[in-house]
Amino acid sequence: MIKSLYKAFEVRWKSYRHRFVPWMALNLQKNERTLRQVKNRSQDKLVEDEEVFGSLVCLFTELLKNDLKNQSELLRFLPQANRDKYTNVRNETRDAPSSVMLNALGFRIERKRSSLRLAGTGVFVTRGRAPRGSVVAMYPGTIYQADEPIFFQSIRNPFVFRCIDGVLIDGNDRALSKTVYRSCSGRDRLGPLCLSDCSWLTSDPVNPLAVGQYVNNCSNEKAANVCYQEYDVPEGFPLELRQFLPNVNYRADTQRPLRCVVLVSLREINCGEELFSNYYTIVH
Question: What one-character DSSP code corresponds to residue 144?
Fold first, then answer.
């Protein structure tokens, strides 16, 4: 009995460890290919924030246009000039979000079984190709500042991502983490405007980028082709497009901008390739 329990734990651990923050912290020095060193936080950015902004707005605009029948109430509250940007389209059919992504960004990604043994789910480019410096995914979840409680949510949770400044993102789409995210998302609304997206908690996310928590860490056999990049959503981000952001602050009165983490391609990624990430660390 004990032997079978140990075996089950070992299998699960080998699946979790590719994303588990404490395990990576202890093992990074054993595998330098998993680590990208930067001298300060500003140098973790492979592309400028303006480029991230442009990519997200481009995709989110097309997602909104693709769903006009369900956006009528929201559009009525927008100024006419803003409304015209979304309603001036001829296509009245609704495409799958992955198809919208392919048309907007030139590639699409999907969750599939990882090519890494015992790693479980991974993320692949399944159509087109992602040029170097492209935003290829987002890390969804609840945002916790360094002083906010996350103990119970973190138990047996391999999806907690730690930013350079100590901010944590809980990207778990199950159990208590899922409940917390839904509660915080339902709390943060502006009239008919949703300020975050809950669909990443399902198997069919409206924002096809919101699968970054399933990107596995690179290994000696599988080199990194994407890296994490922190992105604080600016005040000028269109309100009507915030409904596609897969992040929400744990505390309603948080004064800092909403933190997002995007995954950016380190090189051109071709159709059929799995995404593998590396992690940055501050060096002095």
Answer: E
Q: What is the DSSP letter of 252?
A: T
DSSP state letters, 76-123: HTS-HHHHHHHH-----SPPPHHHHHHHHHSEEEEEEE-SSTT--EEE
DSSP E strands in 114-254: the ranges are 121-128, 135-139, 141-144, 160-162, 168-170, 189-190, 193-194, 216-217, 226-232, 247-249
- Spatial contact of 160 and 74, defined as CB atoms under 8 Å apart: no
CA gap 211, 227 in Å, rounded:
14
Question: What's CA 219's distance to the chain center, in Å?
Answer: 21
Collect all residues with Cβ–Cβ distance below 8 Å to 87 and sequence separation of at least 6: 68, 75
Give the Cα separation of 87 and 149 in Å (integer). 43
On whether the CB atoms of residues 262 and 130 are closer than 8 A, the answer is: no
Backbone angles phi, psi at 190, to 5 degrees: -130, 90
pLDDT tens by residue, the chain, 284 residues? 566 655 555 555 454 444 444 434 444 344 444 445 555 555 678 999 999 999 999 999 999 999 998 998 888 888 998 888 898 776 667 899 999 999 999 999 999 999 998 889 999 999 999 999 999 999 999 999 999 999 999 999 999 999 989 999 999 999 999 999 999 999 998 887 899 999 999 999 999 999 999 999 998 889 999 999 999 999 999 999 999 999 999 999 999 999 999 999 999 999 999 999 987 655 55
**Token output for 113:** 């079984």
| Structure token digits, residue 281 | 């660390």
Q: Which residues are within 8 A (CB) of 69 and not within 5 positions of it... i.e. 6 or more apart?
A: 94
pTM, rounded to two decimals: 0.85
CA 207, CA 259: separation in Å to the nearest integer?
A: 17
Residue 228 amino acid letter:
Y
